[in-house]
Design goal:
Layout lengths: L1 E2 L4 E5 L6 E6 L10 E3 L5 E5 L5 E5 L4 E6 L6 E6 L5 E6 L3 E6 L5 E6 L5 E6 L5 E6 L3 E6 L4 E7 L9 E6 L5 E6 L3 E6 L5 E6 L5 E6 L5 E6 L4 E5 L9 E4 L4
Parallel strand pairs: 19-23
Antiparallel strand pairs: 1-2, 2-3, 4-5, 5-6, 6-7, 8-9, 9-10, 10-11, 12-13, 13-14, 14-15, 16-17, 17-18, 18-19, 20-21, 21-22
Length: about 250
């Protein structure tokens, strides 16, 4: 699945690489900033016009629901592993948690000061990671609604933004992509920065682990997708590694 500045969502067959379907929404000056598949694959959530979130039925190709509440653009979306909750991060500095079935808002997590650019659930669904526009990642305890830890690079500078976050399948690592052209690998349990991955030549806008946790994919504004072997990243001292071409 991919999106663009033309207000369309493209669905791709991941086995063949062939485009299966294009969802056009006939909205002028409309950018789809974020999309997320429900775990069962039946619903697509996407950032809609006028600060909304739209839930789209994949099988019938019709809109199911529109979720309203944010006051600025929705920049990031993520479903919980059980598919019962949808998290949305917005430029209004809030994270909202929605009941994915009813569309009702369950909880608001307020950052108050900074744009929320990325969100990701931990594999057990108990923690939500949020990347914001000052280089900080918050880990939220979803039972209490409070921040339980903060991840921050000691070398962060003004303008540093966390565009993407993703947990490894075992929940031990958290990857983050930023506008400094690199990827940070964190120990999700201790908050320690384990590795910095270098290879892109522009902002890193997306990161994702493979289902077995051995490979990390990263996408960048430089037009490239890099694949990283992360099997050797263990809770050790911080190291710097570069992507190697095959």
């Amino acid at each position: 699945m991919s999106t663009g500045a033309n207000g369309a969502i493209l669905l791709w067959d991941v086995q063949t690489g062939i485009k299966k379907q294009t969802l056009n929404f006939n909205q002028r000056n409309f950018h789809v900033h974020s999309v997320a598949f429900s775990p069962d694959g039946n619903t697509i959530a996407y950032s809609g016009p006028k600060n909304t979130i739209v839930l789209w039925d994949v099988s019938t190709n019709v809109q199911k629901q529109t979720l309203s509440g944010h006051t600025k653009t929705v920049w990031s979306l993520a479903y919980s592993p059980d598919g019962k909750t949808l998290a949305s991060g917005s430029l209004d500095a809030n994270i909202r948690l929605w009941d994915a079935s009813t569309g009702k808002q369950k909880l608001t997590l307020a950052d108050n000061l900074h744009y929320v650019l990325s969100v990701a659930f931990s594999p057990d669904g108990k923690t939500l990671a949020s990347g914001i526009d000052n280089g900080v990642i918050h880990l939220w305890d979803l039972e209490s609604g409070n921040i339980k830890s903060t991840l921050m690079n000691n070398q962060r500078q003004m303008g540093y933004q966390v565009h993407a976050v993703a947990y490894s399948p075992d929940g031990m690592l958290l990857a983050s992509g930023c506008d400094r052209w690199n990827i940070h690998i964190w120990n999700a349990q201790t908050g320690k920065l384990e590795r910095i991955l270098f290879g892109h030549k522009d902002d890193v806008s997306s990161v994702a682990f493979s289902p077995d946790g051995k490979t990390l994919a990263s996408g960048s504004h430089d037009g490239s997708t890099l694949f990283w072997d992360v099997t050797e990243i263990m809770p050790q001292s911080v190291g710097k590694v570069s992507h190697k071409e095959n």
